[in-house]
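User: Can you recover a sequence for this backbone? Please restate the input before giving your answer.

Assistant: Of course. Working from this structure:
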C-alpha cells in the first residue's frame, strides 16, 4: 500500500479509537488546572463504580498487606492516603493498553505500559525536585500517556519496516521519529496528538504528547511540562525500559537545561526512586 493509502487508514483508526471514560476525562481536566481541589477529584472517583472497584481491588491486594479489607474509597484514603488513591485512579487510564503487544515496534505485552509507568514516575520525581510549578499528578499523567500514538501506529508498521528504520538509524544516526514519518506519513507523536485532540485532553497534555521528542517546538507556555516529559522519557529508556525496537533511538534536546539543571547526583537519586516506586506500583497494579 502507498504511503498516502496507509496515512488515510491511520486517520480512520485514530478516529475510531476508543474514548476514555467520562470519569477519566473529568479527572484529567481537574488535575490539569493550575489549582485543583483534591476533595472534588476524589468525589469524581467515588461516583464511578468501575474506578472505585478497581481502586479497592488494588488496595485490598496482597501488595498493601492490610489487616482488614477496605470497602469504601473513604476507608482507602484513611489507610493509604488520598494521593495514593488518586494515583491508582490515574493508573486506570493506561489499563486499556496494558496488555497490548506492539508488534510493529517488536514490543511484548506490557513493554509500553512499563515504559510509560517509568516515564510517569520519573516525571513526577523530577517535578518534585524542580522549582518550576507543575503538579506531580499532571506530570505523572503526561508520562503515562505520552506514547499513546504508538498504540495506533503499531498495527500499520510492518515488522520489516520497523527493522529497516532501526538499521537506517544505526547507519545514519537519524531519529526514529523521522523514519516513522518517512515510512507511514505520520510519526507516533503526531498520531498521539490527533488522538489527544479527539479525546479533548487539556492543551498541556496535548502538547506533551505532540512534542515529547522535539520539545523546543511546543508553545512557550507548555515548554516546562514538555521538556520534563522529554527528560523523563529518555531516563526511562536509559534504565533499559523502552517500548521495543526504537529504544534510545531519539536525541536529547539540550535546551532542557533552560528549564531543568539537575546535577548527576540528583538524576541518580531520581533513577533510584523510580526503580523503587516502579517495583511497588507494578506489584500493586500489574496483577490487578
Ligand atoms: Fe515517544
Ligand atoms: Fe516514550
Amino acid at each position: 500500500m502507498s504511503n498516502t493509502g496507509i496515512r488515510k487508514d491511520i486517520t480512520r483508526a485514530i478516529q475510531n479509537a476508543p474514548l476514555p471514560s467520562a470519569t477519566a476525562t473529568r479527572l484529567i481536566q481537574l488535575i490539569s488546572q493550575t489549582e485543583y481541589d483534591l476533595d472534588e477529584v476524589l468525589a469524581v472517583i467515588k461516583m464511578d463504580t468501575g474506578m472505585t472497584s478497581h481502586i479497592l481491588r488494588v488496595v485490598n491486594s496482597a501488595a498493601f498487606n492490610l489487616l482488614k479489607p477496605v470497602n469504601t474509597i473513604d476507608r482507602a484514603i484513611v489507610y493509604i492516603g488520598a494521593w495514593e488513591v488518586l494515583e491508582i485512579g490515574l493508573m486506570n487510564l493506561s489499563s486499556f493498553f496494558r496488555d497490548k503487544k506492539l508488534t510493529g515496534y517488536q514490543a511484548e505485552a506490557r513493554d509500553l505500559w512499563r515504559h510509560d509507568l517509568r516515564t510517569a514516575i520519573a516525571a513526577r520525581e523530577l517535578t518534585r525536585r524542580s522549582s518550576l510549578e507543575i503538579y506531580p499528578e499532571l506530570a505523572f499523567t503526561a508520562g503515562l500517556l505520552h506514547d499513546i500514538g504508538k498504540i495506533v501506529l503499531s498495527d500499520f508498521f510492518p515488522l520489516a519496516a520497523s527493522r529497516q528504520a532501526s538499521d537506517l538509524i544505526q547507519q545514519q544516526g537519524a531519529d526514529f521519529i523521522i523514519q516513522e514519518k518517512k515510512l507511514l506519513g505520520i510519526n507516533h507523536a503526531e498520531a498521539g496528538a490527533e488522538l489527544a485532540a479527539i479525546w479533548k485532553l487539556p492543551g498541556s497534555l496535548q502538547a506533551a504528547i505532540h512534542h515529547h521528542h522535539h520539545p523546543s517546538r511546543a508553545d512557550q507556555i507548555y515548554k516546562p511540562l514538555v521538556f520534563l516529559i522529554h527528560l523523563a522519557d529518555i531516563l526511562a529508556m536509559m534504565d533499559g525500559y523502552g517500548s521495543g525496537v526504537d529504544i534510545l533511538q531519539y536525541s536529547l534536546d539540550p535546551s532542557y537545561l533552560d528549564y531543568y539543571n539537575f546535577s548527576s547526583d540528583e538524576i541518580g537519586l531520581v533513577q533510584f526512586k523510580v526503580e523503587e516506586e516502579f517495583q511497588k506500583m507494578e506489584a500493586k497494579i500489574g496483577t490487578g
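That completes the design. Residues 3-17+99-285 form a domain with the Hypothetical protein af1432 fold (CATH 1.10.3210.10).
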